[in-house]
Design a protein that fits this description.
Layout (H helix, E strand, L loop, with lengths): L3 H6 L4 H17 L4 H21 L9 H13 L4 H21 L25 H9 L6 H16 L3 H6 L5 E2 L4 E5 L5 E5 L2 H24 L20 H14 L8 H14 L4 H8 L4 H4 L1 H17 L4
Antiparallel strand pairs: 1-2, 2-3
Helix pairs in contact: 2-3, 3-5, 4-5, 7-9, 7-11, 11-14
Length: about 325
């Protein structure tokens, strides 16, 4: 097994390096993937290219199915988790399919390679009463408290990704018609209905608390105040880490012991809709999933909930 330092010193063949750079540019420019996602792909492909360089493989056309399998086995020997190996193989499939599509390669060596079997991982979900406790735990007697309540109401009420929540601009609020416009993955815009509670708190924040926060940025010398809806204590746009800290503060105040991540609110949104009888395709549309199989994971959560209810309340549960 190589040390990380030795692995990073391995030469990447020029033809592989060039094709990888072209693929990453395609992901960034044409598919509009985020910087973090492209960086993750870049790491996986660099590791793969160094492995091929060790084997003496110089071009993408020289890669064979056995090379892909050997790479997956080495990752397992290096202690990489099955889920990470599966993710890496998915990255390689995308890369080789792109090469076939562009005519850079004639065959896809990943076509018949299966990834490791993974246990189904159900998303973290809060119960309805826990969501209510979380929202009630926010002290709305302050400017920041009003902002926090509005953020949490909107994140849960519209099932937003944290990136979507933190980049919503005031112009994207159409609250008189009860919806918001967000820019999702792949630069795809979608329109999402918003409930009465989220509308009430977002309007309260927009009309009262936000101008106060925006004024702080002006006093600090900012030439232009951001159009982003949610601002931090200095009147600047909130960061992902800033939102995470805010969420953890209110989770602790609510006495919730489960691990709660920003995405937990989105998972809870979808699960509670399906528990209430919502149509799966409607939930898919609201979440912005391109493939309904991604949304179907929430039906598994719903079944687990029903089984728990049965175990708890049926006389022979």
């Amino acid at each position: 097994m190589k040390t990380p330092e030795q692995a990073n010193e391995t030469r990447i063949p020029a033809a592989l390096d060039e094709s990888i750079a072209d693929y990453l540019s395609h992901l960034s420019v044409e598919r509009g993937l985020s910087t973090n996602t492209v960086a993750s792909y870049q790491g996986d492909l660099a590791s793969y290219a160094r492995f091929l360089g060790d084997l003496g493989v110089e071009t993408p056309e020289d890669v064979r199915e056995d090379d892909i399998r050997a790479y997956a086995r080495e990752r397992v020997r290096d202690g990489v988790s099955p889920r990470s190996v599966a993710r890496a193989l998915s990255c390689l499939r995308g890369y080789h399919r792109y090469l076939v599509f562009t005519g850079a390669s004639e065959t896809d060596p990943t076509a018949h390679v299966e990834g490791p079997k993974l246990p189904k991982k159900l998303p973290d979900v809060l119960a309805v009463h826990e969501i209510e406790a979380l929202l009630a735990a926010v002290d709305v007697g302050s400017v920041l408290g009003t902002r926090d309540r509005a953020m949490l109401e909107l994140a849960y009420g519209a099932g937003l990704r944290v990136s979507e929540l933190l980049t919503i601009e005031i112009a994207n609020l159409v609250l008189d018609e009860a919806y918001v416009r967000v820019m999702g993955k792949g630069a795809k815009e979608r329109v999402i209905p918003v409930g009465s509670q989220a509308i009430e708190w977002v309007e309260r924040y927009r009309e009262g608390a936000r101008p106060t926060l925006a004024a702080r940025a002006s006093r600090a010398g900012a030439s232009v105040v951001s159009d982003v809806l949610f601002l931090n204590a200095r009147g600047r746009p909130l960061t992902r880490m800033g939102f995470w800290k805010i969420l953890q503060k209110h989770v602790a105040a609510a006495g919730i012991r489960e691990r709660v991540k920003p995405h937990t609110l989105r998972h809870s949104f979808a699960t509670h809709l399906l528990e209430g009888g919502a149509d799966l395709r409607a939930v898919q549309e609201m979440l912005g999933h391109s493939d309904i199989s991604t949304t179907q994971i929430y039906t598994s959560v719903d079944r687990e909930y029903l089984k728990e209810i049965h175990r708890s309340f049926h006389p022979r549960g």
